[in-house]
Structures are given as C-alpha cells and as structure tokens.
Amino acid sequence: GESVGLHLPTLSVQEGDNSIINCAYSNSASDYFIWYKQESGKGPQFIIDIRSNMDKRQGQRVTVLLNKTVKHLSLQIAATQPGDSAVYFCAETPFDGSARQLTFGSGTQLTVLP
Amino acid sequence: DGGITQSPKYLFRKEGQNVTLSCEQNLNHDAMYWYRQDPGQGLRLIYYSQIVNDFQKGDIAEGYSVSREKKESFPLTVTSAQKNPTAFYLCASSIDRDSAGYTFGSGTRLTVV
Q: Is B102 in Cβ contact with A102 (below 8 Å)?
C-alpha cells in the first residue's frame, strides 16, 4: 500500500502547552483516518478517528484536523500532560471492496517536559 | 473484561528454531491481524484473517505462517525461514473486515539468541 509519513520524528513540549503532531498521507482513496498512542512496550491505543467527509473532530483534550486538499492530518493535544508522553501514529485506510487494512506512519515520539 | 491477549510477553528464539506467538480475543471479532514493529518504525502487516478458516498474506508474510481454526485464536509461527525475526509483534482484531476500529494486544517481544 501507499505510505503514510510523519513530518517530525520527535516533539518536545512543556507541560501545559498544546502539542501538534502532523501526518502526511499519499493514498487519495483513503477515507478513514485514525490516531493511535503507543506507550513503551505496549500495544497502540485508539485516540480519535475521522472520516473523509469531515475536516475536524474533537475528543477529550484532542482534536484531529483533516485537510484532503494537501493530504494532511494533524493531532492537537490541549494542555499536554506527562502521561501524554508516548509515540503517536497516524493510520489511514481506503475501503477497497474486500477489507479495510490500516497503513501506519512511522510515528512521532512526544516528550512532555516538566 | 473483553480484550485481546498476547503471550508470551517476551520470547527468545535460537537460530533455526520455529516459535509460535499466541493471540486470543474474547471480543467476538471476526477479523484478526498480525503486525511487526521494528524500532523507530511503524507497523507492518504480516497476515490477516477476515473469518475462521481463512487468512491472507500481508506486506511481509515471508518466513511466517498462521492458522485460524477458531474465531477467538490467531496464532503466528515465526519459522526458521524468517532471517531477521527480532522485533515487537502486535496482534489486533476488529469487528469485521469493513471495520478499521482495531483493538490491539499488548505485544510479544521476540529476540533471537
């Protein structure tokens, strides 16, 4: 499948500041996007998703923005906390008529500084 | 609690040895997946199964084999043909093949010694 990439491999933010993690995707057929959080030695956890008929979706302290024109996805975390330190992956999937398979980006390591 | 369980958490394999990683789910999900994760990289799909007794190769299936005899179980065998098996292996499941809402297990770290 086509790759999903991230602009920055690492991001450091001060506790309490807002974090923005970016993701570029290349498969124009993708219609569903998901952000996952992965803590060290654990499996990815679902954070938030968005479908291609939307450009913004908000959750608790997190917002995902989708810009289909430039194939760009971002995750915004408000008032970043130490517990937010993890690797964040974006994933995309088109529906090809048989099954959905996720294509993952390489991840961004978010470090929250005290 | 419903969930997906992988075992063991850590596994050591000698050169030329086959090993099997366990993945069990009690979520009543039809679809199950195996991913490989290398340091600093994203997840790459090894095999997936949309329904019992059916499975398909993913992007990096060479050197791996799977079975899906029961809905709840999707074991992955890393064979001696896999030349670089040291990695973190993640199993996931979803309600059905049309769903991208994956639930992941906690992973198995395989090391060749």
A: yes
